[in-house]
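Progress note, project year one: complex with zinc ion.
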Amino acid sequence: MECIYCKGIMEKSTAPFYLDRKGYHIVWNQIPAWVCTQCGEAYFETQEVDTIQRAILL
Ligand SMILES: [Zn+2]
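Model obtained:
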């Protein structure tokens, strides 16, 4: 997998996930993600994002 911005190498890591919803500003730390070793861009997998969004709706 390579970064869409800089074509750098992506590594499985964790990154903070930010979300703004209905006036709430939510930050999760340590969410599993692919992180670019070159520019630091993080990509979250759909499954992880789904889990987070479900948690918010509860
Ligand atoms: Zn990159």
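The pocket of zinc ion is lined by residues 3, 5-6, 8, 36, 38-39, 41 (CB under 6 Å).
The domain at 10-57 is CATH 3.10.20.860 (Ubiquitin-like (UB roll)).
No further modelling is planned for this target in the current period.
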